[in-house]
Design goal:
By secondary structure, this protein is an alpha/beta fold. The chain folds into three domains: 88 residues, Alpha-Beta Plaits (2-Layer Sandwich); 111 residues, Rhodanese-like domain (Oxidized Rhodanese, domain 1); 52 residues, no CATH class. The protein has nine helices and 15 strands. The strands form five sheets. A five-stranded mixed β-sheet has the order 4-1-3-2-5, with helices on one face. Strands 6-10-9-7 form a four-stranded parallel β-sheet. Strand 14 and strand 15 form a beta hairpin. It is globular and about 60 Å long. It starts with a strand and ends in an 11-residue tail after the last helix.
Length: 303
């Protein structure tokens, strides 16, 4: 059984590029795969591997400047959910595109999973899902508002267009692991919203801690690895993803005439060129050949 750790931490990294080689080498040596993003504002990512290897990487991250308070969400997978290890440099560890947003300055009030149901059941609370539309489509909290955004950077525009709907209301927001809410709650506070709350640890922590019989979660939670989705208890949800756009694919999607395994799904049928489709078909063919040999098409490449 492999350990999967989803993590983020906001801190000041004066030289994030200088941190990349050490983390890359450590992950490779420990048999850990996944993705880590480094930026001047901190670190974000999900990694998987044998428990001793994941613990070694987490210990190294906790030793980075300002990261001693690192928290993470832990789950498990029977097979490796990543093809390789990627350590990347970014401008932001979660892209909102608002230079004045600073989660280190202030954020909304954290709400523990055990207290979340009471908050969102209050008629004076507006519950907002800060994730992208394709994530919301496979699962969300009962009664939550879906902004219909394609990317997190669209959230500020959506808020400006809809803020009058929520005047005088208490705002409760949530996302997969909590990182988007660090920025969205800081943003709303800067917009003059006084009562702003967010789910501590995100959906993943809620699904881990709140029993199914007491849960207000409906559906599955999209995750950014080969498991595609998880449900209560953080068990894999059984969905697959589109080989082109990586959005989750349901049984209904697979029955659609436009669906082609590894190449196209109903959501992305107009998003790629004929040349792109040819490239996707060849990639899918190579992946099937690799699987038949018991290997992974992406290999152990580091980025």
């Amino acid at each position: 059984m492999l350990t999967v750790a989803a993590l983020y931490h906001f801190t000041r990294f004066p030289d994030p590029a200088g941190l990349k080689p050490g983390l890359s080498e450590l992950c490779q040596a420990q048999g850990v795969k996944g993705s880590l993003l480094l930026a001047p504002e901190g670190i974000n990512g999900t990694i998987a591997g044998p428990r001793p290897g994941v613990e070694a990487v987490l210990a190294a991250i906790r030793a980075l400047p300002g990261c001693d308070g690192l928290e993470w969400k832990e789950s498990f997978a029977e097979t490796m959910p990543f093809g390789r290890m990627k350590v990347r440099l970014k401008r932001e560890i979660v892209t909102m595109g608002q230079p004045d947003v600073d989660p280190l300055a202030r954020v909304g009030n954290y709400v523990a999973p055990k207290d979340w149901n009471a908050l969102i059941s209050d008629p004076d609370t507006v519950v907002i899902d800060t994730r992208n539309a394709y994530e919301v489509a496979i699962g969300t909290f009962q009664g939550a508002v879906d902004p219909g955004t394609r990317a997190f950077g669209e959230f500020p525009e959506w808020w400006h267009a809809n803020r009058e709907r929520f005047a005088g209301k208490r705002i409760a927001m949530f996302c997969t692991g909590g990182i988007r809410c660090e920025k969205s709650t800081n943003y709303l506070l800067g917009q003059g919203v006084n009562q702003v709350y967010h789910l501590k640890g995100g959906i993943l922590k809620y699904l881990e801690e709140v029993p199914r019989e007491a849960s207000l979660w409906q559906g599955q939670c999209f995750v950014f690895d080969d498991r595609v989705s998880v449900g209560h208890g953080l068990l894999p949800g059984g969905l697959t993803s589109c080989g082109a756009c990586r959005r989750p694919v349901t049984e209904a999607d697979q029955a659609d005439p436009v669906y082609e395994d590894g190449v196209c799904c109903p959501a992305c049928q107009d998003e790629y060129s004929t040349a792109d489709r040819s490239r996707f078909r060849e990639r899918h063919r190579q992946m099937l050949l690799a699987a038949s040999r018991g290997t992974h098409h992406l290999g152990n490449a580091q980025e």
